[in-house]
Write a structure and sequence with these properties.
The protein is an alpha/beta fold. The chain is built from seven helices and twelve strands. Helix content is about 20%, strand content about 30%.
Length: about 240
């Protein structure tokens, strides 16, 4: 673990914020989509956080929820510019492009802070060398939680946000819009094809399980570090440092 200095903090709502830190020389190169461990400098609690910044950037960026009573986020939400936090120096994870077979379209399907690894992926030029089209869907409860909407709208991707608890032009869960056909008609695209489409999933455990089941029902296989497939999902974990 390294001590890194907080460079910037942005609060989107009572439940969501992002922050940037320095990136010391001990933090090795990472692949877009990987995660690392975060903790307070004077505490033993660590949590897995996907890196939202691109691999070539000089800083590190993270997206976080605020969990009432959470042993880490109760303190992390109050960090200020100039504070120091612990950041793991060995990023890892399976939500990377190397674990996908070649395809035409890349789908990054996120709920909540599951957007974070995709922010790294769509900021990485190698993504656009591998895929002709990149589509990012982001499902949140309230419009305030549509973090990075301006950035996502400015990139050469298709950005498709949905909101579940407020009026919005594309309301509801992404799975509901898939089932109703609204997603495909809105984007003027055909439903997922195992030949052309590659899907990356990052959200709640229930959401990940649901979408994985749907994709496997279509014949898609889950990609791993050993064998690439037609879709991947992250299995980030929570750990507590001994001592």
């Amino acid at each position: 673990m390294n001590l890194e200095t907080v460079l910037d903090v942005e609060h989107y709502s009572d439940a969501l914020f992002s922050f940037k830190t320095t990136r010391g020389p001990d933090i090795r190169s990472f692949k877009a989509g990987q995660f690392t461990m975060i903790g307070m400098a004077d505490d033993d609690i660590l949590r897995a956080y996907s890196i939202a910044s691109a691999p070539n950037e000089a800083h590190l960026e993270f997206l976080s929820i605020k969990v009432p009573g959470g042993p880490l986020t109760e303190r992390l939400k109050d960090i200020q510019v100039g504070d120091q936090i612990e950041v793991g120096d060995r990023p890892t994870g399976t939500l990377v492009l190397d674990n996908l077979k070649p395809g035409k379209r890349l789908w990054c399907v996120a709920t909540g802070t599951g957007l974070a690894p995709f922010l790294s992926i769509i900021r990485d030029r190698h993504t656009f060398e591998r895929f002709e089209q990149v589509i990012v869907t982001h499902t949140v409860r309230a419009t305030q939680e549509l973090a990075y909407a301006d950035l996502l709208s400015s990139l050469p991707i298709i950005y498709y946000p949905t909101v579940t608890r407020e009026p919005f032009q594309t309301p509801g869960r992404i799975t509901e819009r898939i089932d109703s056909g609204a997603l495909w008609s809105d984007l003027d695209l055909s439903p997922w094809s195992i030949v052309e489409d590659r899907v990356m999933i990052c959200g709640s455990p229930e959401f990940n399980k649901d979408l994985r089941s749907r994709l496997e029902g279509l014949g898609f296989t889950h990609g791993t570090n050993r064998a690439p497939g037609e879709f991947v999902q992250e299995r980030a974990f929570v750990m507590q440092r001994a001592g």
